[in-house]
Specification:
GO terms for molecular function: carboxypeptidase activity. By secondary structure, the chain is an alpha+beta fold. Helices cover about 15% and strands about 45% of the residues. The strands form three sheets. Strands 1-2-3-4-5-14-15-16 form an eight-stranded antiparallel β-barrel.
Amino acid sequence: MKIIITTILTSLTLLCFGQEPHPGTYFTTKKDIGFESDIFQFQEDGTFSYIFFTCTGTGFGKGIYEVVSGDSLQLQFTDCLKCEENIQIESEEKLAEDSLEINLTIREWTDDSELAGVNVYFPSERKGTVSNENGQATFKTNITSENRTLRIQFIGYDPIDLEVPANTSRLTGNVYLTWHWIYDSSDIKTYKILKWTRSKLKLKRYPDWSITYDKVNDQKTDELIKSRMGETRYELYINKIKTPANDTYE
């Protein structure tokens, strides 16, 4: 009976006054961790930062949040961390040559490490190679009198389609890959709030699927990020995303 009365009172409160936000850091509960898990850090000033861990990569950024219509959480993504200049190459045009020589080094943007097993190929020709343990992708193909697209693709990273000008005979340099992202800057997402208390947040993230988040302190958050992302990406998170500590509970 007590549970029923509490539920009714909570529903009436939300109906009359709307859902009240509870700033803090929230992490996906163990029972809801599947192919993805998240950390949301909601600040008092209406800003938030986020970290996503998925089976194909990791992403993080910042944004602005607001409770709209009394029962929905609106997230406006303003700063999704990406690499703006992720290609550094040189091309050379020689009409006398009859072959195009490609010699690229594929690297991880965050720590400049070489990536092995990256597919580098021309989709229209089914011609290409895979980068070796040093990140090098080298092969030759015929020169063409038309522009064509060279694709650099690796699981968990954003693919790159590089336009190769007509009559190019040599293509060398570094290509930096970044992680696959769930959100882009300027995205606005709205989720139904099923529950938001001082210790839990439950959102209807998908039509038939809700996700619950537990409130955690900064120390626990840092431990989670380090274990999931590794030291290099953790340092990137500290330098680009981390907000002042907020260990207090309301």
